[in-house]
Design brief:
The complex is a heterodimer of chains A (about 325) and B (about 325).
Chain A lengths: L4 E12 L2 E12 L3 E5 L6 H8 L8 E10 L2 E2 L5 H7 L4 E4 L3 H4 L6 H12 L4 H14 L5 H4 L9 H13 L5 E5 L7 H18 L2 E6 L2 H7 L2 E6 L2 E7 H6 L4 H9 L53 E2 L7
Parallel strand pairs in A: 3-8, 3-9, 6-7, 7-8
Antiparallel strand pairs in A: 1-2, 1-4, 4-5, 9-10, 10-11
Helix pairs in contact in A: 4-5, 5-7, 7-8
Chain B lengths: L3 E11 L5 E12 L4 E5 L6 H8 L7 E6 L2 E2 L5 H8 L2 E4 L13 H11 L5 H14 L16 H13 L5 E5 L7 H18 L2 E6 L2 H7 L2 E6 L2 E7 H6 L4 H9 L38 H5 L19 E2 L8
Parallel strand pairs in B: 3-8, 3-9, 6-7, 7-8
Antiparallel strand pairs in B: 1-2, 1-4, 4-5, 9-10, 10-11
Helix pairs in contact in B: 3-4, 3-5, 4-5, 5-6
Classes of the chains: A alpha/beta (about 325), B alpha/beta (about 325).
Chain lengths: ~325, ~325
C-alpha cells in the first residue's frame, strides 16, 4: 500500500499549547480511494484533516513530530508559496457548513472562477466557462443563471454542491471532506454522497471522508480508520470493519446506535464521555469506558498492530 | 380521553412581498397518556413549529389544542400559566438553553420558584431528587453549566423540564447535537423516565432510527402537513407514503446495501410557494396526474389498498380513502 499511496501521514503529533491533541496518527490513502475517518467530537479527526492542508491555527497549534507525504513531497517542508500551489489545486477541502465557507458578497460564478484564475493561466471568459461546466457536473439546475446568484439565494444542499464545484475546479488529486453532509437532510445527504462517489470513480480523485456517521462510512468508503483520543485505534476495509469490529471502542460504538437495536429496549450505552485533550488517561485512552479491560490497559498504550486489519487494543474482540 | 388532541392546528408567517408561509397546515393529532409520539421530517417541514405551537410558545394561527379536554387556545396568558406546569419542553442545544450565569441548582429549581412551589428547603430537596433522577452527582447543583459536557447539560435540561411533574414533554431534537456514545445514554434516560413517570412525549427528530427506537406511534411531516401517521412498527415495516418510503431508505445504516435505495431528486420546496395538489408531487417517484391538482387528505386507506391489520392514516392518492 505504501508504494502506491497518494498521501501518507506518518506518526503525526500535534499539540495545542502544551496539550497533545494528535498523538501519533499514521494513515495512507491511494488514488481513487475513499477513506473514512470516523470518531466523536474531540478525537482529533478535523485537526488531522486541517493539518493535511496546513490550515491549522499555528500557534496555538503546533505540529511537533511526523510527516505528511503527498505525491512524494513532505507537506511539512513546503514554504508558503509551494503550499499556495498545493491548496485548492492538488488538494481541495470541503467543510460541514457551506454557508460560512462561501463569501456572501460575491456571486457563485465569481467565487468558482477565482479558484480557476488563481491556479490556471486562463482568461476570465475561460474561467467562467469552466465554472458553468463544473456547476453542470455537480447538478446545479440552469448553471448559466446560477453564476450570477449569491450564496444566500441557494439552499444548503445547493451550497454544498457549489463548494464541491469549487473544490473540483482544478481537478485535485485529493479531496478532504470534513463532515460534508452533517448539516444536510438525509434525502439531500444521499444525493451529495452519491455525487462524491461518482466523481472519485470518474476522475480517480482520492477522498478522505471525515464523519461521525458510521452508516455513511459503511455505505461509501473502501477503508475506514476509527479515531479515539488523538489516535487511530482501528483500521480495516469497510466490509471487514463492520462485519468484525475488533477494538472494543468500535465494537461498542456499532452496538450503541439505535439502528442496531430493536425498538424499545435499552441501548447498550458506552459509559462516561470522550476525554478532552489534556485530560486523557494514561494507558489505553478508552480504558475508563471499556467493559473488557485487562491488566495493561490502565498503564500502557497498546501499539497499532495487524496486517490488513489494524487494531490498538490489549484485549480485542475475537 | 386523549391527553392532548390537536385539531386543524396551523401556523402561518408573513413572507416576503405579501406572501404567506404556511409553516404548519391543518395538523390534527392525538397523544394518549404515557404515549410517545415521534414526529419526523426534514428541516423546514414544520416539526419544531408544531412542537412550539402546541405549547403556545409560538402563537398558533388557527385550530384547537385540547389538553385534557380543555382548549388551550381560548386561554389568556394568565390562565395559561398554571397549565404550563403540565407542558414542558427540552431543546436541541444544551449549550444555548441553559443560563451560563446561574448555578445548575438554580436552573433546575427555577420552574418551582416561578410557579411558587414549596418552601426554600422543599425546593432544595426537590432539586437534589431531580439531580439523582437524571443521573447527575449531588454536588452538580452548586456548579455552573460550562463545567458540564454536552450530555450532562442535556441531563440538566431534562431535570429542569421534569421539575414540575409535567404530563407532556416536547423533546425537540433533544439528542441530535450529541455524540454517538452520549446519544444512547440520553435516549436510555428519556425512555427510562418516560416509563417511570408515565410521561407522554412528543419526540421531534429528523433521525428516523432514533424516532423508531423511542416511539409508540410516528407522524411523518412534509411541508407543514402530516403525510402519514400510525403505529411505529407499521410506519417502519410497511411505510405507505412514497415520501416515508424514501426517507426510510435514505438512512445510511451499517450492513444495509446502498443499491435498493430510493434517492429523491431535488429538495424541500419553498413553504412560501408550495406546489399545487400534493406538496410532494415535485419529488415523488410515483407521481400521477391527479397529484398535480388535488391535495390528498390524511385518512385511513380502503382495506383493499393496504395489508391486513393496517391502521395507519396516509395522505396519498395511491391509497384511496375508505
Amino acid at each position: 500500500m505504501a508504494e502506491s499511496a497518494l498521501l501518507t501521514i506518518n506518526d503525526l503529533h500535534i499539540d495545542v499549547g502544551s496539550r497533545p491533541v494528535i498523538e501519533g496518527v499514521s494513515l495512507s490513502i491511494a488514488a481513487g480511494e475513499m477513506l473514512g475517518l470516523v470518531g466523536e467530537s474531540g478525537c482529533g479527526k478535523s485537526v488531522t484533516a486541517l493539518s493535511i492542508m496546513r490550515l491549522l491555527a499555528e500557534p496555538p497549534m503546533k505540529i511537533v513530530k511526523g510527516s505528511i507525504v503527498f505525491d512524494g513531497q513532505d507537506i511539512l517542508d513546503l514554504d508558503d508559496r509551494a503550499l499556495e500551489d498545493l491548496r485548492g489545486n492538488q488538494i481541495a477541502m470541503i467543510f460541514q457548513e457551506p454557508m460560512t465557507s462561501l463569501n456572501p458578497v460575491f456571486s457563485i460564478g465569481n467565487q468558482i472562477a477565482e479558484v480557476v484564475l488563481l491556479h490556471r493561466k486562463v482568461s476570465r471568459a475561460e474561467a467562467e466557462a469552466r465554472a458553468v461546466e463544473l456547476l453542470t457536473r455537480v447538478g446545479i439546475p440552469s448553471p448559466q443563471t446560477a453564476l450570477g446568484r449569491y450564496p444566500h439565494q441557494m439552499s444548503g444542499g445547493q451550497r454544498q454542491r457549489v463548494m464541491i464545484a469549487m473544490a473540483l475546479a482544478c481537478e485535485p488529486k485529493l479531496l478532504v471532506a470534513d463532515e460534508p453532509t452533517t448539516a444536510l437532510d438525509v434525502t439531500v445527504q444521499a444525493q451529495i454522497l452519491d455525487l462524491l462517489d461518482d466523481l472519485r470513480r470518474e476522475t480517480g480523485m482520492a477522498v478522505l471522508l471525515i464523519t461521525h456517521d458510521l452508516g455513511v462510512v459503511s455505505q461509501y468508503c473502501d477503508r475506514v480508520a476509527v479515531m479515539y483520543g488523538g489516535r487511530v485505534v482501528e483500521e480495516a476495509s469497510a466490509a471487514e470493519l463492520f462485519a468484525h469490529p475488533r477494538h472494543r471502542y468500535t465494537e461498542a460504538l456499532l452496538r450503541t446506535i439505535p439502528a442496531s437495536n430493536p425498538p424499545g429496549v435499552e441501548l447498550p450505552a458506552i459509559p462516561g464521555q470522550v476525554p478532552p485533550p489534556g485530560r486523557r488517561p494514561v494507558g489505553c485512552t478508552f480504558h475508563p469506558r471499556c467493559h473488557a479491560m485487562v491488566a495493561p490497559c490502565g498503564t500502557d498504550m497498546p501499539a497499532l498492530v495487524g496486517d490488513a486489519h489494524l487494531i490498538r487494543c490489549w484485549n480485542p474482540a475475537a | 380521553m386523549s391527553l392532548l388532541e390537536l385539531r386543524h392546528l396551523s401556523k402561518t408567517y408573513p413572507g416576503q412581498n405579501g406572501a404567506v408561509v404556511q409553516a404548519v397546515s391543518d395538523v390534527s393529532l392525538t397523544i394518549e397518556p404515557g404515549e410517545v409520539l415521534g414526529v419526523v421530517g426534514e428541516s423546514g417541514c414544520g416539526k419544531s413549529t408544531l412542537g412550539r405551537s402546541l405549547l403556545r410558545l409560538i402563537e398558533p394561527s388557527g385550530g384547537e389544542i385540547l389538553f385534557e379536554g380543555e382548549d388551550l387556545m381560548g386561554l389568556s396568558q394568565r390562565a395559561m400559566k398554571p397549565r404550563r406546569r403540565d407542558l414542558q419542553i427540552i431543546f436541541q442545544d444544551p449549550f444555548g438553553s441553559l443560563n451560563p450565569r446561574h448555578t445548575v441548582g438554580g436552573i433546575i429549581g427555577e420552574p418551582l420558584v416561578v410557579h411558587g412551589v414549596g418552601t426554600r428547603e422543599e425546593r432544595a430537596a426537590r432539586v437534589a431528587e431531580l439531580l439523582k433522577l437524571v443521573g447527575l452527582p449531588e454536588d452538580a447543583g452548586k456548579r455552573y453549566p460550562h463545567e458540564f459536557s454536552g450530555g450532562q447539560r442535556q441531563r440538566i435540561a431534562i431535570a429542569r423540564a421534569l421539575a414540575l411533574n409535567p404530563k407532556l414533554l416536547v423533546a425537540d431534537e433533544a439528542v441530535s447535537a450529541l455524540d454517538v456514545s452520549i446519544q444512547s445514554q440520553i435516549i436510555n434516560l428519556i425512555a427510562d423516565l418516560q416509563k417511570r413517570l408515565n410521561l407522554s412525549i412528543l419526540f421531534i427528530s429528523h433521525d428516523l432510527s432514533v424516532i423508531r427506537h423511542v416511539s409508540d406511534r410516528i407522524a411523518v411531516m412534509y411541508l407543514g402537513r402530516i403525510v402519514e401517521v400510525g403505529p411505529a412498527e407499521e410506519i417502519m415495516d410497511a411505510p405507505k407514503h412514497p415520501y416515508t418510503q424514501a426517507l426510510l431508505s435514505a438512512i445510511p445504516r451499517p450492513g444495509v446495501e446502498r443499491k435498493q435505495r430510493i434517492v429523491l431528486q431535488g429538495e424541500l420546496p419553498d413553504p412560501a410557494n408550495p406546489p399545487s395538489g400534493c406538496a410532494f408531487h415535485t419529488r415523488c417517484p410515483k407521481v400521477m396526474d391527479i397529484c398535480h391538482s388535488v391535495r390528498p387528505e390524511l385518512a385511513r386507506p380502503q382495506a383493499s389498498a393496504v395489508e391486513a391489520g393496517s391502521v395507519s392514516a396516509v395522505a396519498c392518492h395511491l391509497y384511496p380513502a375508505a
